[in-house]
Design a protein that fits this description.
Elements (H helix, E strand, L loop, with lengths): L25 H19 L2 E4 L3 E7 L2 E6 L2 E4 L6 E7 L4 E5 L1 E5 L5 E4 L1 H4 E3 L5 E12 L2 H6 L4 H18 L3 H5 L3 H18 L4 E12 L5 H70 L1 H16 L5 E2 L8 H4 L7 E2 L2 E2 L1
Parallel strand pairs: 12-14
Antiparallel strand pairs: 1-4, 2-3, 2-5, 6-10, 7-8, 9-10, 10-11, 13-14
């Protein structure tokens, strides 16, 4: 204002600035954005991924409600829902009596004597190292029916191995019954885990190493060496028997065949003689005198093959005195 009156000293103060007007909705809008962002982030925590070898067990307020397979899924965020992931396709392995420090190709192992040393039925001690392989075939039972499933499987395996070893002698455990122990233990472990409703399927129980304790292993080596020598001698004897017996059987069969052939020849010859006798008998019945004479002559020829013979028919009284037998003609070796 041009005519405004100014008092002395008014020029020393700067003119006042107009007041800034703030929006009443500004602070509330930002707070709303923050809350919305928190809600979104909270909602996104319900997104989860199930791996190719896994199953997901969804729980609502701690109660199991459903199982989901591999892939991307969503559940209500905690504390409403949660998910437990269980690997149901990978074969799991538990070592009994040893631990693998470095895996192959340059493996190194550490013995665990408290697990491996077992008592046999004949009161000997043997070191048994084994592996059990299993899979989870019912994840609901495995998660909700048992606690520390791997530990339960391990303790059950160790218990059954000790039981199977305790009913056998040391020699059987070291040699012939290793496979039987594995099979019996697998069946027993599976049966026990089924009673627990553990949801575990035992794939295999394998005895990695069965040996006497290190303190007496030298004595066992001597015993095993003696047994190997015994078996070697038995094998040599069996080999000799296998080489001799076939020859003896061949010779025996040859003798049997020769005897059988002789038997057949004698039977055929006898049958031929019988047939010849029957033929002669038939002819004899037709002409007894003629046949009798012919048989007599043939018999005399067989008895006296080199002598000169003369056949005179009819009465021979005084005839021999008049005949010059040396001048008679010879016909077929017989003078007539």
């Amino acid at each position: 204002m041009a005519n405004e009156h100014r008092f002395p000293g008014d020029e020393e103060f700067p003119p006042s600035k107009p007041p800034v007007r703030r929006s009443k909705l500004g602070g509330g809008y930002i707070f709303g954005l923050i809350v919305a962002a928190v809600i979104v982030i909270y909602a996104l925590t319900g997104i989860y991924q199930i791996g190719p070898s896994e199953d997901g067990l969804v729980k609502t307020f701690g109660k199991y409600v459903m199982t989901v397979g591999p892939g991307l899924h969503y559940h209500f965020p905690a504390p409403f829902q949660s998910v437990v992931k269980v690997d149901v396709r990978t074969v799991r392995k538990i070592e009994i009596g040893f631990r693998t420090i470095f895996p192959p190709p340059n493996p190194q192992y550490r013995e665990v004597p408290i697990e491996s040393l077992m008592l046999t039925g004949d009161s000997n001690i043997v070191s048994v190292e084994a592996i059990i392989q299993y899979i989870i075939d019912d994840p609901v039972k495995y998660v909700f029916n048992i606690i520390e499933g791997d530990r339960i499987v391990k303790q059950t395996t160790e218990s059954f191995l000790r039981e199977r070893v305790a009913v056998r002698g040391l020699e059987a455990v070291l040699t012939s019954d290793r496979d039987k122990i594995s099979q019996e233990a697998q069946k027993g472990i599976q049966k026990t885990l089924d009673t627990y409703n553990a949801g575990v399927h035992v794939v295999n129980v394998k005895l990695q190493d069965v040996s006497p304790p290190s303190e007496v292993i030298a004595a066992f080596d001597d015993v095993n060496s003696a047994k190997e020598d015994e078996q070697k001698t038995i094998n040599l004897a069996q080999q000799y028997a296998n080489s001799v017996i076939p020859i003896a059987r061949g010779n025996a069969q040859k003798i049997l065949n020769t005897a059988e052939a002789y038997k057949e020849s004698r039977i055929l010859k006898a049958q031929g003689e019988v047939a010849r006798f029957i033929d002669v008998l038939q002819k004899y019945s037709l002409g007894k005198d003629v046949t009798r004479s012919r048989l007599y002559i043939e018999t005399m020829e067989d008895i006296l093959p080199t002598m000169k013979k003369m056949i005179v028919s009819g009465s021979t009284t005084g005839v021999l005195k008049l005949l010059n037998l040396s001048s008679l003609p010879e016909i077929g070796g017989v003078k007539r």
